[in-house]
Amino acid sequence: MKIYQVEKPLVATHRISGLEHRHLQVVRDGRARAVAVDAVGCTPGDWVICVGSSAARDAAGSKEFPSDLTIVGIIDHWVPEEGA
Amino acid sequence: MKIYQVEKPLVATHRISGLEHRHLQVVRDGRARAVAVDAVGCTPGDWVICVGSSAARDAAGSKEFPSDLTIVGIIDHWVPEEGA
Amino acid sequence: MKIYQVEKPLVATHRISGLEHRHLQVVRDGRARAVAVDAVGCTPGDWVICVGSSAARDAAGSKEFPSDLTIVGIIDHWVPEEGA
Amino acid sequence: MKIYQVEKPLVATHRISGLEHRHLQVVRDGRARAVAVDAVGCTPGDWVICVGSSAARDAAGSKEFPSDLTIVGIIDHWVPEEGA
Amino acid sequence: MKIYQVEKPLVATHRISGLEHRHLQVVRDGRARAVAVDAVGCTPGDWVICVGSSAARDAAGSKEFPSDLTIVGIIDHWVPEEGA
């Protein structure tokens, strides 16, 4: 799993039906940004744990959910490293 | 998932039969280019969400579809970062 | 598999139910940090082997466990390379 | 999927039985080289589409085929970018 | 698949039971080191083909084997590139 900070929700009105029913969040790991399915209900600024690979699908709710990155937990306390 | 900009369709006349029935798009993430299966019907210039890993297969239409990167949504508004 | 050094446990009170019942560890590979499910019972400073991909799930205890990085062994003797 | 240029066949007399029955090709993406299972019948110099992840297995012929990178198509026309 | 050079066996006395019955090898790809399950019986210095993703599991002997990198072949002749 990797640690990201939630930046903001992402709106994609035109998307495949399989992606509905879950919020998408733009998450940031230093300079890199990714999009994650929100399985915990987080808010911008939260430091979160994201799971990838095939585990992202079960974590999003079902084996058929088309996610490769899912937010699975909010970290209680996190101090990022300088330069990270 | 990752965010890419659609560059242009890709033509590969000689390909395995499993890849037929779907359009391929060259997508760009900064300097890196990849090829994605188009599951939403996008046009060059669109900013899109692409899913990878095993989720790319279901997203392309079936568990047997040989995709490792599938376009699953078009982002309503996206402002890329400078240098990205 | 990759070699990491265990840094410290990670606490995420608010997480999905599937992630319960296993400890999470922050692990470090040079400058990069990741979060791994601990399947062996390690302590900070240990050099460990972590498995990713879908194998991380079985390694964590079941095919349904939502892990993409699991600690599967503690290395007896390991000397990191300079600069690594 | 990613775009590679075929460099040359790879010979590995001593390999697991599961890898037999398919040719292996050394492929190149800029400076990085990889090995791909050839499912289309390509020749050195061809620009090809390679699929990774679990999709590489089906693309190579069966769910049991131990491939993580399979050549699935030959691109009709491709102009690489400078520096790529 | 990727090409690595075998460096040395890795000893991890304390590991999960699923990882037993197979030797682990430290492999090197330029500056990066990884750990691979040895499915062919190689020796230090060998240039080998390693498969990752879910294919690493079948290649290691069964769908349940917790490997994400398995040595599947020894290359007959390999000349690494300078600087690689």
From TrEMBL, chains A, B, C, D, E:
<dbReference type="InterPro" id="IPR004992">
    <property type="entry name" value="EutN_CcmL"/>
</dbReference>
<dbReference type="GO" id="GO:0031469">
    <property type="term" value="C:bacterial microcompartment"/>
</dbReference>
<keyword id="KW-1283">Bacterial microcompartment</keyword>
<protein>
    <submittedName>
        <fullName>Carboxysome peptide A</fullName>
    </submittedName>
</protein>
<dbReference type="InterPro" id="IPR036677">
    <property type="entry name" value="EutN_CcmL_sf"/>
</dbReference>
<dbReference type="InterPro" id="IPR014076">
    <property type="entry name" value="CsoS4A"/>
</dbReference>
<dbReference type="Pfam" id="PF03319">
    <property type="entry name" value="EutN_CcmL"/>
</dbReference>
